[in-house]
Design brief:
This protein is mainly alpha-helical and 96 residues long. Helices cover 55% and strands 0% of the residues. It starts with a helix and ends in a 6-residue tail after the last helix.
C-alpha cells in the first residue's frame, strides 16, 4: 500500500472512530462506516479498529468475512450482481 493511500485510510479512520465509543459493541457500525467511505476494508483499518476497541485482531476479520456486504478488496462505487436463481432464470436472466 502506498504512503498516500495509508494516509487517506488513517484520515478516514480518525474521522470514523470519533463517532463511536471505544467498545466492542461499536464494531459493526465502525466497519459499515469505513466500508462506505473507502469502499472496502483494508488490513490497516481492521487492525486499527481491533486495537482501538480492545478486541482481538481476528474479530474484525471474522465480521468482515462473514457478512457479504463487506469487502477486503477495493470495489467500484456501484456493484452489479445478477440473480442466477431458478425464478430469475425462468424470467430470462440468462440472457443478461
Amino acid at each position: 500500500m502506498s504512503r498516500e493511500i495509508e494516509l487517506q485510510v488513517d484520515a478516514v479512520l480518525d474521522e470514523v472512530l470519533e463517532r463511536y465509543p471505544r467498545e466492542p459493541s461499536s464494531l459493526i457500525s465502525l466497519l459499515q462506516d469505513i466500508q462506505e467511505e473507502l469502499r472496502y476494508l483494508p488490513r490497516q483499518a481492521l487492525d486499527r479498529v481491533a486495537a482501538e476497541l480492545g478486541i482481538s485482531r481476528n474479530q474484525p476479520y471474522y465480521v468482515a468475512t462473514f457478512y457479504k456486504a463487506y469487502s477486503l478488496k477495493p470495489r467500484g462505487r456501484h456493484v452489479i450482481s445478477i440473480c442466477r436463481g431458478t425464478a430469475c432464470h425462468v424470467k430470462g436472466a440468462n440472457k443478461i
